[in-house]
């Protein structure tokens, strides 16, 4: 194998790697770590990532048996929170809207997503029918459908 082929393969692999990379806690700025500790003092072990493309730190951890993903700017400002939630904790308007708008579909998983101060819920639903079997639904807290994605 010649040197140009090795170099080409190495560069192709480098560009194919995701922008998000695991980093040690010692590489995370103090304001970022302090904000996560302040908001989630009982968080389990935190896995840290850094997104080079967006200059954003990501903390992933478990709290009360649920998974959390918190994205923060280097100054500690939170820009996104995704938190798993129990289906029974979905707001009643969201649960009612799913039952009304998607009969035959049963919620399987839910997440609460907060971005720029706005909250929404992602609900993954499944149907046993032969048509569209999976739906990814996004709702406002008042039960308004924001978007949906069908997956066969």
Features:
single chain; alpha+beta; 9-stranded antiparallel beta sheet; 152 residues
TL;DR?
This protein has 152 residues and is α+β, with helices and mostly antiparallel strands. The chain has 3 helices and 9 strands, in the order αβαββββαββββ.
Protein described:
With 152 residues, the protein is of the alpha+beta class. 22% of the residues lie in helices and 43% in strands. It has helices at 3-16, 30-39, 92-101, and strands at residues 20-23, 47-51, 56-63, 66-72, 78-85, 105-115, 118-127, 134-139, 145-151. Strands 1-2-3-4-5-6-7-8-9 form a 9-stranded antiparallel beta sheet, with helices on one face. β7 and β8 (134-139) form a beta hairpin. The chain is elongated and about 50 Å long. Residues 4-18 have low confidence and may be disordered.
Q: How many E-type strands?
A: 9
Oligomer: single chain
What's the story with the biggest beta sheet? 9 strands, antiparallel
Q: State the shape.
A: elongated
How many helices? The count is 3
Tell me what portion of residues adopts beta-strand conformation: 35-45%
How is the largest sheet built, in terms of strand order? 1-2-3-4-5-6-7-8-9
- State the end-to-end distance: 44 Å
Unreliable parts: 4-18
- Gyration radius, rounded: 20 Å
Class based on secondary structure composition and strand pairing: alpha+beta
Average pLDDT figure: 87
Order of helices and strands: HEHEEEEHEEEE
Question: Fraction of residues in helices?
Answer: 10-25%
SSE inventory with pairings:
Elements: H1 3-16, E1 20-23, H2 30-39, E2 47-51, E3 56-63, E4 66-72, E5 78-85, H3 92-101, E6 105-115, E7 118-127, E8 134-139, E9 145-151
Antiparallel strand pairs: 1-2, 2-3, 3-4, 4-5, 5-6, 6-7, 7-8, 8-9
């Amino acid at each position: 194998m010649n040197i140009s082929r090795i170099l080409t393969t190495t560069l192709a692999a480098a560009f194919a790697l995701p922008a998000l990379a695991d980093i040690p806690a010692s590489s995370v700025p103090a304001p970022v770590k302090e904000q996560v500790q302040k908001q989630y003092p009982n968080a389990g072990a935190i896995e840290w990532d850094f997104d080079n493309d967006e200059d954003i730190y990501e903390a992933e951890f478990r709290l009360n048996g649920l998974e959390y993903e918190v994205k923060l700017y280097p100054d500690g400002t939170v820009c996104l929170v995704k938190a798993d939630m129990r289906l029974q904790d979905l707001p009643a308007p969201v649960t009612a809207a799913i039952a009304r708008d998607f009969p035959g579909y049963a919620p399987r998983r839910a997440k609460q997503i907060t971005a720029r101060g706005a909250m929404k819920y992602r609900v993954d639903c499944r149907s046993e029918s032969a048509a569209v079997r999976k739906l990814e639904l996004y709702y406002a807290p008042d039960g308004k459908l924001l978007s949906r994605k069908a997956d066969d």
